[in-house]
Amino acid sequence: MLPLCFQSEMLGRALRAVSTAAAPGAAGGGVAARRPGHGGHGGHGHAQQQRRHRSSVGGQLLPADEDPPKILITGSLGQLGLEMARFLRQMYGQENVLMSDIIKPTKSAAAEGPYIFADILDFKGLQEIVVSHRIDWLIHFSALLSAVGEQNVPLAVRVNIEGVHNVIELAKQYKLRLFVPSTIGSFGPDSPRNPTPNVTVQRPRTIYGVSKVHAELLGEYYHHRFGLDFRCLRFPGVISSDPPGGGTTDYAVFMFFEALRTGKFECYLRPDTRLPMMHISDCLRSLWEFLTAPPELLKRRVYNVTAMSFTPEELAEELRKYVPNLEVTYRPDSRQLIADSWPQVFDDSEARADWGWQHKCSLQQLVETMVKEVAPQVQREKSTKAC
Ligand SMILES: NC(=O)C1=CN([C@@H]2O[C@H](COP(=O)(O)OP(=O)(O)OC[C@H]3O[C@@H](n4cnc5c(N)ncnc54)[C@H](O)[C@@H]3O)[C@@H](O)[C@H]2O)C=CC1
Ligand SMILES: CC(=O)[C@H](N)C(=O)O
């Protein structure tokens, strides 16, 4: 679940969206919901659009006469997908956000709104979904992350590379707006690590990174060659109280659970391994603000975004404010090699300058929020065991 402060912020935004859209003559922002790829800002000058965009801190609201977009999320039962669906359902309505994955949803996830089986490797199946559900926007989350990708390279090639071929071709055929996340993992040991700028050398050493560079380049190519409305953010490690899917940055989630369960945590990275990170609330908001940003503001189709950088040692120190006796030991494994090739500090100044990206959650707030969310989960586990 998202923190309460964030839920009420989203609710407030959704209500503002409704009231702006309902106001007679309201100057709603231009989500080209039914015609992705079109700006939807006819008659307004660039500077005026920019001012309006900035004053709404990114995300654009729907004008009264536009239907909400129909959105398909692939791989939506992973760490980011269900929270993204909740976020977008608050904005655009439960029925307009279709979750999909190849795994069976829990009863509670299925109860939250429409869910459908979709294998990213089945192009015809995807075509059928897009046509029958009249999809406008596609958010493509299916992937094998950095650590699990190294455990099964052939599968990672299929899901991360063939899967991207399928969604890009699908988006071209049906003129969908397409969001594909990339990652700090798209950089490698030859890239500058502190800071890592938006455009620099990218020679990643994991199949995950290679597949993400491939997605970035293919998406940019389809944008320039065919006008595809391709949008891609490179995320840092995302921290939430949902289980992560097998990445290198996952330690930062595990530390909260183990600290609150046992007061002890064995970390698979060295104490001084600095990596860029962000709370899921910032991740979801960046995605939405970028997805709805007027195309005129986008000088490129792939942007770095981040909120902070920290080491395991620094995270543990902050967490000791809540778990004073927390003991962290360090036993680096193969994930250390991956982390050592990734950015330490991510330069997202281009996203901040072009479409107004601003993070809100600091390390202190992230730790406070995570403790508030994880503590009741751990408490429930303990009482279930006691029964
Ligand atoms: N979580 C993070 O820290 C970051 C995530 N990202 C990107 O965001 C996206 C979502 O990440 P997470 O939710 O963390 O990943 P996750 O590993 O938690 O979820 C991925 C989902 O893809 C699904 N999937 C696997 N094979 C599939 C197939 N053949 N067809 C359809 N779905 C399939 C899985 O069942 C799973 O639910 C990924 O593309 C990832 O690269 C980028 C940077 C950071
Ligand atoms: C940063 C990512 O892309 C992901 N969390 C991973 O560690 O693989």
TrEMBL record:
Q: Which GO terms describe its molecular function?
A: L-threonine 3-dehydrogenase activity
Return the CDD domains for the record.
TDH_SDR_e
Task: Please provide the Gene Ontology terms (biological process) for this protein.
Answer: L-threonine catabolic process
Q: What is its EC number?
A: 1.1.1.103
**UniProt cross-references to InterPro entries, sorted A to Z:** Epimerase_deHydtase, NAD(P)-bd_dom_sf, NAD(P)_epim/dehydratase
Region (Disordered) location: 26-65
Indicate the secretion signal residues. none
Please list the residue ranges annotated as the NAD-dependent epimerase/dehydratase domain.
Answer: 71-305
Q: Which domain of life is it from?
A: Eukaryota
Reaction catalysed by this enzyme:
L-threonine + NAD(+) = (2S)-2-amino-3-oxobutanoate + NADH + H(+)
Q: Where is the composition biased (Basic residues)?
A: 35-55
Q: In which pathway does it act?
A: Amino-acid degradation; L-threonine degradation via oxydo-reductase pathway; glycine from L-threonine: step 1/2
Family in the record:
Belongs to the NAD(P)-dependent epimerase/dehydratase family.
Q: Tell me, in a sentence or two, what this protein's role is.
A: Catalyzes the NAD(+)-dependent oxidation of L-threonine to 2-amino-3-ketobutyrate, mediating L-threonine catabolism.
Record-given protein name: L-threonine 3-dehydrogenase, mitochondrial
